[in-house]
Specification:
By secondary structure, the protein is mostly beta strands. The protein has a domain of 127 residues: Porin, CATH 2.40.160. It contains four helices and 19 strands. It has an 18-stranded antiparallel beta barrel. Strand 16 and strand 17 form a beta hairpin. The radius of gyration is 25 Å and the shape is globular. The N and C termini lie far apart (59 Å).
Length: 374
């Protein structure tokens, strides 16, 4: 029996030695980084007699970096932009999208200070409840956006019942001509202000729910609520509602559907009680997005049609339901194996001469975008 035990021990040690590996090699690194380099070129047809076409070149670089040490995390997101329009525009910009330090006090409590993009709301094209976020660009709703300088306290707790999770965020955002200047101009009419927001998140009956409140000592209070629910594995609905004290309200309703052949459809309806009606739109500049009382937005994306790997086709539509002008986009994208993505699209603004999209300077354009990710 001792000989058998000895043989088993020796065999085990030999087998173990054959499959030895370095644990340090698979340990998670304390830092992460990612980013991209992007070139955009738009050949634009103009609604002008003096010039029919123009070429807009846009260069963009993004670098994200995060480092964690014990309960502390440092994150930065840096961007560089360059725009060139012959004989008209040559501009460069170097925004800091995010730059903050966060720390866990314990399992449930954490603090954050610095510049962060909160990304509140469930809508794809527009977010009425995003009180402390910059507006989305309707032509690129998923584009990375610059955050604001904030201080944030967070509490998080999980449960084993119908209420699976609860999370509370308390956010303070100062706005002056030196700190968060853009928020100061847009939200508090250029006046220095102390702004605070509360967001209560609930995962209740498999439904994501946010309840929000925004206070400012130089602007009216705001309240908001949003939700997202999967009715089926491939069908989700979502909505947002926001109201300003003694003023108007805004709501958005939408859904997302994924077919068994990888067709994704997103549709959303936006209503703004203080939005412009058709007669008002005719005398309003066309440079401001989402000016009308209501819109319908849709996006359809077909992944790998005809079994073409790494290839997608898509169509996007945004319709002003007051003057029925439209912004349409049809395109195709392809991802190469060397982390290079290409996207080419044709974009068309249509409508009568006094409508929102019909009176834009650019009537239509061909857009080529090439992105290298690392």
């Amino acid at each position: 029996m001792p000989k058998v035990l000895f043989f088993v021990l020796i065999s085990t040690s030999l087998i173990a030695g054959e499959y030895d590996f370095d644990m340090a090699a698979i340990e998670q690194k304390p830092y992460e980084y990612s980013g991209y380099l992007r070139v955009d070129n738009k050949v634009q047809k103009l609604n002008q007699e003096e010039q029919e076409y123009q070429n807009l070149l846009h260069l963009e670089a993004l670098f994200d970096f995060s480092y964690s040490y014990e309960e502390l995390t440092f994150k930065s997101s840096l961007m560089a932009n360059y725009d060139y329009l012959k004989e008209k525009t040559e501009e460069s910009d170097f925004p800091i999208n995010e730059l903050y330090l966060s720390g866990k006090l314990n399992t449930n409590h954490s603090l954050l200070g610095g510049k962060q993009s909160l990304n509140w709301g469930k809508g794809y094209f527009y977010n009425p409840v995003a009180f402390f976020d910059r507006p989305k660009d309707p032509t690129q709703p998923t584009q990375t956006r610059e955050g604001f300088i904030i201080a944030k306290y967070s509490y998080n707790k999980s449960f084993a019942n119908e209420l699976k999770n609860i999370s509370l965020d308390l956010v303070y955002l100062p706005s002056t001509q030196n700190i968060n200047q853009e928020y100061c101009e847009l939200a508090t009419q250029g006046k220095d202000a102390h702004n605070a927001a509360l967001r209560l998140y609930l995962l209740l009956y498999d439904t994501d729910i946010d309840i929000l409140y925004n206070y400012s000592d130089n602007a009216k209070d705001k309240i908001g609520i949003d939700f997202s629910k999967n009715l089926q594995v491939n069908f989700e609905i979502h909505g947002e509602f926001a109201a300003v004290t003694d003023e108007g309200f805004t709501y958005l309703l939408g859904g997302r559907y994924l077919s068994d052949f990888d067709l994704t459809i997103i549709g959303e309806y936006l209503y703004q009680s203080e939005g412009l009606e058709q007669a008002q739109i005719e005398s309003f500049p066309s440079t401001v997005p989402f000016i009308a009382k209501d819109y319908f937005m849709a996006l359809a994306t077909q992944k790998e049609p005809f079994e073409w790997l790494y290839f997608s086709l898509y169509y996007k539509n945004m319709t002003n339901l007051q003057d029925y002008s439209q912004q349409n986009k049809i395109g195709a994208s392809y991802s190469f194996k060397n982390n290079v993505d290409t996207d080419i699209s044709y974009n068309k603004n249509s409508g009568n001469d006094l409508s929102e999209f019909g009176k834009k300077t650019v009537s239509d354009f061909l857009w080529l975008q090439v992105t290298w990710r690392y």
